[in-house]
Amino acid sequence: xxxxxxxxxxxxxKEFPKTRTNTDPYVVLITTILSQRSKDENTEKASNQLxxxxxxxxxxxxxxxxxxxxxxxxxxxxxxxAKNIVETSKVLxxxxxxxxxxxxxxxxxLPGVGRKTANIVLxxxxxxxxxxxxxxxxxIANRLGWINTKTPEKSEYALMEILPSRLWGPINGxxxxxxxxxxxxxxxxxxLCPINQSCQYYLSGEEPK
Length: 209
Ligand code: SF4
Hints:
Elements: H1 3-15, H2 25-34, H3 40-51, H4 57-61, H5 66-72, H6 78-96, H7 104-107, H8 115-126, H9 135-144, H10 152-162, H11 165-181, H12 200-204
This protein binds iron/sulfur cluster.
C-alpha cells in the first residue's frame, strides 16, 4: 500500500472529525435512508421528528406511509422514503425479529438500502470495517489521484484496495465533512486545503473535476 495515501487519509480523519451521537442500528439505518439526496440539517430535522415520540421498528411498521409524510418532509423525496421506511421496518420484523442484520448482503435487500447506506450502518452501529462511498468520497478520492473511477460503487472497491481496513469506516464521515468545508463540488478551496501538496489536481494545475 502507498504510505503517502495512507498518511493523507489519516490527516483528513484527524482534521475533519465526524462525531455521531446515536449508534442504534435501526435509527442509523432509517436516518441514512432519509439522508439520501438530502442536506445534513434537513436529514437531522426529519430524523428527529420521526423518532421524537419514541417510535421503534414495530411502531413504524404499523403506519401507513402517509402518516410519515409530515415528519420526514424536510429530507425531500418523502413519499418514496416513507414507503421504503415502512416496508423496510416490516421486513426487519418478518425476517430478522425486528433487528437490523449486521450483514451487507442482507442489508442491501431491504427497500431503499444500497451499498452506501448498508456500509454506513455496518461501521457506525456494529464497528465492522466498511467502505461507504457517497458523492463526496467518490469526487475527492478521484481529485486526489488515489483512484480513477467513474462510479461510487467502483470507487468503493478501488478504495478498499488502497486503504487499510482500519480507515474504511472513519474516512467516510471525515471526507464528507472535508467535502462540505474545503473540497467542495464546484469550487474547491485548494489554497486553504491542508493536503494540497498531496493532491494530483492541485499539483497538476488542472481544473479539479
Ligand atoms: S487541493 Fe483542492 S482539489 Fe485537491 S483535495 Fe484539496 S481542495 Fe480538493
